[in-house]
Amino acid sequence: MSLKTLENSLEILKYFTRDRSSWGVRELAKEIGISHSIVYRILSTFEQYGFLIQDPISKRYKLGFRFLEYGQMVKEDMKLSHYIYPVMEALSNEVEESVFLTWLDKFDGVTVEIAESSQQIKYAVSLGTRTPLYVGASCKVIMAYLSKEQQLEIIHEGLQQFTNNTILDEEKLLSNLEEIKAKGWCYSVGEYSDAVFGLGIPLFNRQNEIIASLTIAGPEYRIEDIHLDNILKPLQDAGAKIQNYLYNFSGRYV
C-alpha cells in the first residue's frame, strides 16, 4: 500500500461521523473529491476486514464491529471502569445528575465514560460522542488550559453555532476561557444542547498537562432549584480522587 493510499483510506474513515454515519460510494467520492473507483476499492477493503459493513439493499457503508472491539480495548487499557467509574457513579448518586468523563483528542473532546442519572428526565449522550472544544462546559474547561496558540488555531478553523447560546465571537470566547481558567471550573447553559446545564472541572496528567474533564450535566430547569456550590464541591472532591489516580497511572493515555 502506498502512503497516498493510506492517507486516502484514513481520510475516508474521518467522514463516518455521528451526524453522517453511512455513505454511498459516489456521494462520498464527490464529498472528498477522490475518484469513485478509488473510494470503492478502499471501502471494499475496509469491509473485507470488518471495519465497514455494506447494507445489502441500499449499498451504503457504515462502521463495522471491528471499531467496537478496538474501542473496548482502549477503554480497558485506560482502566476507566475499574478505577474511575465508581467515583463517577457515587457522584451521580449524590447530585442526582449524569456525570461525564471527557477526554482530549486533538481539538475535540470525546466522551469516554458516563455515569447516568437515575432520574427519569436526564441529559444523556453516547460513549464516543465527539464535541468541539469551544462549546459546552465539558469541553471549554479543557480548551481553557490549552496554549493561546492552540486556542486561536481552534477558533480560526471556524466556529459552528449549535444553539443561540454558542459563543461565536473570538474576543468573547477568549475572555470566557480566561475566566474559566482563573476559576478552575466552567458552568454553561444551553451552549451545545438547548436547556441543558453543564458544570465541568479540568483533569491533568503527571506533567500537569490538560488531558480531560469531569462534568455534571442535566436539564436546565433543575439547576434553578440547586445552589451551584452544592454540586461544585462534590464535583471537585470526586475530581480530586480521579486526579490522584491519573497522577499515579502509568498507562499510555495519561
From TrEMBL:
Q: Name one GO molecular function term.
A: DNA-binding transcription factor activity
Q: Does the keyword Transferase apply?
A: no
Any idea where the HTH iclR-type domain is?
3-65
User: Which SUPFAM superfamilies does this one have?
Assistant: GAF domain-like (SSF55781), Winged helix' DNA-binding domain (SSF46785)
- Per the record, the domain of life is Bacteria
**PROSITE patterns attached here?**
HTH_ICLR, ICLR_ED
Key words, A-Z: DNA-binding, Transcription, Transcription regulation
Q: What is this protein called?
A: Glycerol operon regulatory protein
Q: What is the lineage of its organism?
A: Bacteria, Bacillati, Bacillota, Bacilli, Bacillales
According to its UniProt entry, the protein's GO biological process terms are: negative regulation of DNA-templated transcription
Q: What does this protein do?
A: May be an activator protein for the gylABX operon.
Where would I find the IclR-ED domain in this sequence?
A: 66-248
Q: Does the keyword Secreted apply?
A: no
